[in-house]
Each structure stands twice: as C-alpha cells, then as structure tokens.
Amino acid sequence: MEMPGNIFLNNDCFSGTCSGVPHTENFYFVGRYHPAHYKGFTPWKRLHEYEGIPESGSEHTIITQGHGRMIIDSHTHIGTIHDFSITGDMLLRSMRRYGIGYALVSSVEGAEFDGGTRELEPWKPQITVNEEVAALARAHRHMMKGLFWIKPRREGWSHEVERFMTEHHDLMAGFKAHPALSMLNITDERYVPYIRCAERMGLPFAVHSAPDEFSPPRAVYDTAQRFPGVNFIMVHMGLGTDNTEAARYIRELPNLYGDTSWVTAEHVLDAVRECGSGKILFGTDAPIDGEDTYQSYSDMIAMLRRELSAHEFDDVFRGNALRLFRLEV
Ligand SMILES: [Zn+2]
After folding, report:
1. Ligand 1 centre from 302 Cα, in Å?
2. Beta partners for 106?
3. I need a surface site. Which of 56, 177, 219, 302 has the fewest CB within 10 A?
C-alpha cells in the first residue's frame, strides 16, 4: 500500500484499514501512524516515553524501529549563516514529525568561511557557538547531545575548549570539523590539539568529506590512521562521489566510520556490505533541506530495512551511535 510521500514496510501487520496491531519481534516501518490504532501495543507504549514520539493527534509520519528502539540521527544542525537559518525548534519539529528519537547536533555557525573564500561575518567565537548547542541539548536532554564544531583556522585551539567540553560532558558527545568551511585541509597541524583532546576525553571526531582540496576521503583516512586512539566519522563518505573510495578506507581502519548523509540508498547498502553494519551510521544533515529533509531518506531506509537483517539495521540506525557517542538513551 502506498500513500503520497509514505512507505509502508510491514503491510501484513499494518493493513490499509489499520485494523492490525503490529506484534512481530522485528517490526519496523516508515509510514503514517495513528495513536488510536496502537492501543495495547507494548513497544509503542515504550516509544511514547521518548519525547520524539507523538502521543496524540491525527496522523504522523513516523520512521522508527519496533521493540522500543528509537532511531538516532548522528548528524543534524542548527544555526544561522547569512540568510540561511535553522532554529532548534525547526530541528525538534522535524524530528517529532518523523519520529526520530534522538540526534547529535552541531551548529553551522562553526563555519569560518562562507563556502567560498570570504570570511564569515559577524564573527562568533567557537565557545559561544557551542554554548548555544549545549543550551539546546540541556533543554532537550532526552532528545539530543551536541557536537563541538571547531574553528581551527581563524581562531584555533585553546584550553578553554577542553574546559568547556569537560564542564559540558553530559551535553556534548564529540567534535565536528568542516575542513572546506574552515578552508583548512584536515591533515593540517592546527587540527591536532582538538584531536588530542578528543582522544583524552574518549570522544569521536566527525569530519566533513568531499572531493575538494580540504576534505578528500584520503586525507580523512590519513588523519584517522595517524590517531588510532580516536574514532573518526567520515560524514558524507566523499560527498557527491560513488562513495567506493571512502568505503574502502572505512573498511580498512577500525577507527574510521562513515555516515549516510546525502549518500544514495544503493551506495549506503554497498557501504554496509563492504564495511560491515558496525561501521556505518545513520546521519542526514537535517533539517538543512527544510523540515522534511527526512523525506529524502525514506527510500534509503526502506531499502536497508528490506536488505539488512534486524541486527544490522539496528547497528546503522541506533547501535553504532550509542556506542560511539557513549549515549545512554
Ligand atoms: Zn552537516
């Protein structure tokens, strides 16, 4: 059964009349959900305990797993640059609309350049940018933790960063580097003190990757190889490529992971097959493309649900994030 913009994955349980109550061990779906239809369904009751799942109302589009397992988005954003703006409310609305139970969030205000060579103004120090992320995480601690987006070029490392991360260890779960928006190749020494800090604190380090002069998959690989004590997430797995080079690197290094943001369904599946389900994390960049960014991922989610075992699916959509970011949710 198809409804506009929705995909039903367990039609034997979830019939067009909504009379069936899903009850299987491995119930997952992407589709419309009406709370009244799920009375007495224990996993759903447990899901209701999470802030991300609507308790009442008419129909909601939900992407979730059964058995009380939430979906974790390891790559989301807030922040305002020029006329581009994502508020915390937009992210929260988007997560609630699509039933995303938990997110790792960073602020695009960590960018140092405008995507070209112009310095981004007005300047906001990295601590200030990330204080805003921590404040959002504090207000919604059951739904998110922050990643500290670093400014290695125009500002640079200071011990204040480590002090901030220590003081906010319950709110901040890792670091985020965007070499293109810092105009600084990820192999540059100016990243090293941040990476060493991640190592001391046992936190992962997410790095934007794309076939440009700053963030090619090879450079992310070289960095991960140099610091085997830090888990690196190569987000986008080489943005806009066929992702095969990135997947090869991710397979090779135990401390290098990939995320699914802007990777096609087929290429995500290929990467999971090549690297193992323990190496790929669900991540989306939401709501960078609007509050319905998750809609762009419904084909990918449906394909992985079809092609992966329940265990593998859970790795990608929850388990790996729990482990890497040391979440207790
Ligand atoms: Zn991003």
Report:
1. 22
2. 77
3. 56
